[in-house]
Give the backbone structure.
Amino acid sequence: MKPDSMRGMKLVMALCALVGLVTVAVTLAFGRASVPAPRTAAATSPGGPGATEEYGKRLIAQTSEYLGPDVPNASMRSMDSRLACASCHIGAGLEPGNLSLATAFTRYPRISPRSGGNETIQDRINGCMMRSMNGRALAEDSPEMVAMVAYLRFLSSQDAETGAAQKKAHEPAAFKTPNRAAHLKNGEQVFSQRCAACHGAEGAGLAAARDLIHGFVFPPLWGPNSFNDGAGMHRVLTAAKFVKARMPLGNPDLNDDQAFDVAAYLNSRPRPHKEGLEQDFPDRAKKPIDTGYGPYADPFSVEQHTFGPFAPIEAFYKNAQKPAK
Ligand code: HEC
Ligand code: HEC
């Protein structure tokens, strides 16, 4: 095929998928009876003018336009990936169910197993900045951090008013871990049949425009523009749960085996590395069993922690919790 007609085809494909996306977006925007207009946080916040809920929502929906590696103002460049927060937190966190941000604000501060310390909502956002976005922490009093926190606070107050959390997410039954190691070959096949049309045969995604500052219509699943190996999405069970609930976008119909294998396949592809991961989870017994880097409080290999089988690891920790006789 000539490069030109190739590009034409891609455009048609993207448009078809976009129609689906727009439907989802419209449903999200108008599905809720009376969404109050965003209030501004500027008057009370140290971030000053501009640190509004509205700005927070734009930061989460179009992150690369404000914090990405291509923004003209070098001091604003806070990440090396070109994802948006909304690449994973669908509908800017409004979509109920898997990775919804509707009630995130109410869960902090709390003890974080990953850092072993008390974690504020700002710390949690910076966790995703440093791992999911392969970037750097934002200052707590920066307009961007204040705005994102204001937006999350707004989402949770709206949720409390409308009981939106009780709204059932329209998604498949919860993911159940198959009792076997993942099959990368099978995962590769699922990928090429069900994912590559949008995310690209090389998983590199489809950019929204020639200028990468505008981010991606279909985000990269691996490679330099994607999340790093310290991200939650780099854990196979976390990714499998997300994929089963959400992908293919608009038509999530994979079974547990397919979701497990394709998540493992994504995990096996190259992506940026985060330094210092061995310091995560100072209490090793609290490390999620699908963390693909040591050290561990158990005798299982990195390989098994990455691709399973997970049942023996689960059993090990269950037994360890039983009081000694
Ligand atoms: C690559 C996918 C991905 C991207 C991109 C991403 N996140 Fe996350 N985020 C996750 C995952 C996965 C979790 C759950 C953490 C876990 O299970 O370890 C999470 C958790 C969170 C939480 C805590 C939610 C709760 O209810 O406790 C917040 C807040 C959050 N993310 C905000 C953000 C913000 C803000 C951005 C953009 C700066 C962002 N995330 C980008 C994957 C992502
Ligand atoms: C119809 C197009 C489409 C198909 C097919 C599709 N996705 Fe996605 N996927 C998206 C879009 C778009 C997003 C970002 C969410 C948004 O913008 O609302 C996304 C986000 C993701 C993310 C999180 C962000 C990132 O870049 O890592 C993962 C992981 C993912 N998809 C995996 C898959 C897998 C696995 C499959 C195949 C089973 C698949 N997708 C099929 C469109 C698609």
